[in-house]
Amino acid sequence: DTNGNVLVDREVTADDLTNGILVDGSVVGDKVEVTAQVIDKVGNPSPEASDSALVDTGAAPAPSVELLGDSNSDGIYNSAELGADGTVTAKITLDASTVEGDRIIITDTNGNVLVDREVTAADLANGIHVEGSVVGDKVEVTAQVIDKAGNPSPEATDSAVVDNSAAAPAVELLGDSNNDGIYNSAELGADGTVTAKITLDATTAEGDRIIITDTNGNVLVDREVTAADLTNGIVVEGSVVGDKVEVTAQVIDKAGNPSPEATDSAVVDNSAAAPAVELLGDSNSDGIYNSVELGADGTVTAKITLDATTAEGDQIIITDTNGNVLVDRQVTATDLTNGLLVEG
Q1: Opening angle at CA 17, ends 13 and 18, nearest 5
Q2: Quick one: which of 15, 103, 170, 277 could link to 146 by a disulfide (CB 3.0–4.6 Å)?
Q3: Which of 335, 198, 211 is nearest to 275 (CA)?
Q4: What is the C-alpha to C-alpha distance for residues 207 and 198, in angstroms, rounded to an integer?
Q5: C-alpha angle 163/92/116, rounded to 5°?
Q6: Is 127 exposed, middle or buried (0-12, 13-18, 19+ CB in 10 A)?
Q7: What is the pLDDT of residues 304-343, one digit of tens each?
Q8: Contact 143, 66 (CB under 8 A)
Q9: What are phi and psi of 157, to 5 degrees?
């Protein structure tokens, strides 16, 4: 064999002549060699016959895999760090001893084959970029080189956690006592605001960020979530702008993912146009009623004219000199057209 060890030294048999002789040649370093010689019965030696080959059984050098785009290097990909298609870019760099014609195999988190081909000069110079798919909360890219002799390298892998969503809070405007979606003057706070309660999702955690804004976009709260917030919610006062009140809340989790915005809004109608009241029968318009100008029962007729913005179903209250209630009812279509006449 390669070392000169004698594997066979015997007489030739009929079977040898028919089938030949099989031996196992030992490998020495990177070489294997087997040598045979026949000596005939007269004692004449034949020339030696040899066959040899190189042996390459070492593993191919492994490539390196690097997931790109983790901007804060925390090992967690948030929604902003993922690609538009929800993937993560990985760069595979080949070892200096890898050569053109070696084979490169790259797989993703699911084991799907992204690349399986021969290595090119461009690969050696620039590396190979692939897009790794996210499965659940994980992304992983694995690469392996197989050299021309068929020796596989160790697999090289890079992986990371993916946290790309945050749960939205709930926003509820409080104090709409009749639940009609309209805040009147009695339902507004003394300072003209509306109280809102923000309830955080069960998956929100201490240290997440909560941002709450009002109708004008003014920031009411921008801070870390506390244990008390998780238990009790957060109460804020929303300002009224024109005829509207709105409170908006958003959570940004520790991974940097913004939740969808949650909003509650309502109409504010906190004023009613005044009617006009005119005392009738002051014939000389001197502002003094004499006995002739008073009614037979000693009263004065008054006409109440309603504003154009008053509507059917609004309430009209009319009182006299003594504070006695003369009318307390809903406005009718006739009232809007003709006004109301009372005796004061």
Answers
A1: 115
A2: 103
A3: 335
A4: 16
A5: 105
A6: middle
A7: 999 998 999 999 999 999 999 999 999 999 999 999 999 9
A8: no
A9: -135, 145
Q: Residue 286 pLDDT > 70, yes or no?
A: yes
Pair of tokens at residue 142: 């694995």
Q: How far apart, in Å, are the Cα atoms of 303 and each of 26, 134, 136, 273?
A: 125, 76, 74, 17
Is 111 within 8 Å of 143 (Cβ atoms)?
no
β-sheet bridge partners, residue 199: 170
DSSP 255-318: T-PBPPPEEEEEEE----PPPEEEE---TT-SS---TTTS-TTS--EEEEE--TT--TT-EEEE
What are the backbone dihedrals phi and psi of residue 250, each rounded to the nearest 5 degrees, phi first? -145, 140
Mean pLDDT, residues 186-201 taken together = 93
Stretch (H or E) spanning 50: strand 49-54
The 10s digit of each residue's pLDDT in 197-253 is 999 999 999 999 999 999 999 999 999 999 999 999 999 999 999 899 999 999 999
Query: Please, what is the end-to-end C-alpha distance for the chain in angstroms?
Result: 135
The DSSP symbol for 18 reads H
The Cα 213–Cα 291 span in angstroms is 65
Whole-angstrom distance, CA of residue 300 vs CA of residue 288: 11
Nearest to 8 by CA among 32, 31, 38: 38
d(CA 174, CA 194): 7
The SS3 of residue 43 is coil
E runs forming strands in 63-162: 64-67, 76-77, 88-93, 103-107, 113-118, 128-132, 134-135, 138-146, 156-162
pTM of the model: 0.60
Residue 322 identity (one-letter amino acid): N
> Could you tell me how far CA 331 lies from the centroid of its own chain?
52
DSSP lists the bridge partners of residue 134 as: 139
Query: Tokens 């004008």, residue?
Result: 216
pLDDT of the residue at 190: 85
